[in-house]
Structures are given as C-alpha cells and as structure tokens.
Amino acid sequence: MNTLELIRPSAHVAQVWLNRPDVRNAFNDEVIAELTQTFVQLASEPQLRVVQLGARGKAFCAGADLNWMRAMADYSWEQNRADAQKLADMLWALDQCPVPVVGRVHGDCYAGGMGLAAICDVLVASINVTFCLSEARLGLSPATISPYVVRAMGAQAARRYFVTAERFSAAQAHALGMVHELCEPEALDAKVAEIVAALAANGPAAVRACKQLVRDVGGQPLSAELRAETARRIADIRASGEGKEGLQSFLGKRPANWLV
To answer: What structural domains does the chain harbor?
Structure first.
C-alpha cells in the first residue's frame, strides 16, 4: 500500500495508519481506495477482535488533498457524484467493521478526518488536537461524513459547527461526547494500547454482538417487539459456547479459553 501502513501485532489486532505525513494525511482517490480495501478485508477475518486507526506525522488528517481538490474543480456533476460515492462507500466500509475501531487522534483533525474520527467506536485524543468541520468555509458541505459526525457529536452541536466552520478543541469534543478519552501527547500510545488490550481480552463473539446491539437498538422505541428481540439476543448468547465458557470460567476463577 502507498498511503497506509497495516501492522498486525497479533491475529486478533490490526493497526491501520494513515501514512502521508508530508500532506498531513489528506485524502485523495488512492487513500479512499486503500482504506476501503483494507477494511473490507479486515471485516472478513473471523479471528480479528479490534482495529486501531491512527496516523503518522504531525496531524491525524487535514481533510482533502489540495491537488485532488484542484482536479475536482473542473469535474462535471456526474464526475462529482461518482467521486463522492467512493468516499461515502469508504466511510460505510469503516463504519460496518464488525469489531471495535479505536481511534488514535493527534494534531489536526479536519473535514473528512472528522468523518474517520466519528466512525471510531472508542476515540482517544491528545489534549492538543484541533477539530474543524471546515467545508462551509470553502463553499462546500460535509454531506458524506454528516451521518457519522451527527451521530458522534449530536445534532445540536452539528448545527453549530457545520455552519460556522469554527475550530474547536479536544476538550470541547470530549464535552460533546465525541471523544471518549483525553490524554497528554506523551500518554496517547499507552492509553490506546490499554483500551485495545481490554477489548482483545473480552469474549470475541460477545464484543461483536455488543457493537451490533448498539446499532440496532439506538433510537428505537421501547416497544414489545424490542423487548422480545433483546430477550432473544441474550438467550442466544447465554446458550452459545462462548457464553457458557465465559460463565464457567468466571465461576471457576480461571481464564476463559479465548485468553489462552
């Protein structure tokens, strides 16, 4: 890969690094294609338990590559539509990853970079991160990233930051609930490693089921159908091999078999 670095510390863990530090890891066609391909492949691996998403250099992601933007200036509507669909499909591929994605954010996180950050199930940020939805400043709209950003920061905050294109701090993003953990720059790697290790130690099927559960019940009315569905799901997982092993190992005060 030319724009990404993929590291496999174990069969259970994947590290995906944006690796265009000279342009602050800005998006272009190649980045979009490689991220899509990488996450589609990772999603097919049954042994995978967690993905760490980070970036090399001084910034997490500065948004769109300037050369790419120059090329788009002369696109027809049809070309713009096709180009935007690739970005939308990339974001969907990342969002649909069946295992948790832990984001490691440092430096600047602008525009499309905010889409990547918003997709992460757990987002860890250095206290010096600057966030910005800068599209309106350029006469554009954060349309493709909007479903993920609105979900992550809430509609009320999005109403402000979409239209003002203001920069805001990691502390503000934390207050909004978008960032889960704040830390000093020198503690960033240790905090991310701690969270990755915790996720990898949990029941693999249970973690996947929990991630899907949030997707499926979020925003749903508390109906009889939802109560029945959640009861079915807990019955399914209690009766599964992993569920039985988890309970037996806890009662027997021994490590579960997915840890050995």
So the answer is: 4-200 (3.90.226.10), 202-259 (1.10.12)
